[in-house]
Specification:
Organism: Nesterenkonia rhizosphaerae
InterPro entries: Brnchd-chn_aa_trnsp_AzlD
Strand content: under 5%
Number of domains: 1
Number of strands: 2
Structural class: mainly alpha
Helix content: over 70%
Order of helices and strands: HHEEHH
Protein name: AzlD domain-containing protein
Keywords: Membrane, Transmembrane, Transmembrane helix
């Protein structure tokens, strides 16, 4: 049992350490750097858009879909302010407010 635990620990450490050591020696080109800068926005979109559009298991763009309308208002705040903090606060505040009112 102990040998198995040590083996799993070694595999975990090696699998995390090797990419870090390889990336440390690698200088990405400008195209790769530009692409990598877009990854966080793409990940957020991949999480948020389905949550906004899918209501009770189906795509819903009706007035009953609170998440869609709050999401659109939050996107407007993001575009107008360009502030991550204000965007998060507006989204949370709007969703809490809408949930309490309706």
């Amino acid at each position: 049992m102990i040998i198995m635990l040590i083996g799993m620990a070694v595999v975990t450490i090696v699998s995390r350490l090797v990419p870090v050591l390889l990336v440390d020696r690698f200088e990405p080109g400008p195209k790769l750097t530009l692409w990598l800068e877009q990854v966080p926005a793409a990940v957020i979109a991949a999480i948020v858009v389905p949550a906004m559009l899918i209501h009770h298991g189906v795509v819903d763009v009706s007035l009953d879909n609170r998440a869609l309308w709050v999401g659109l208002a939050t996107i407007a705040v993001a575009v107008l302010t360009r502030s991550f903090f204000l965007t998060i606060m507006a989204g949370l505040g709007l969703m809490i407010g809408v949930s309490l009112l309706f």
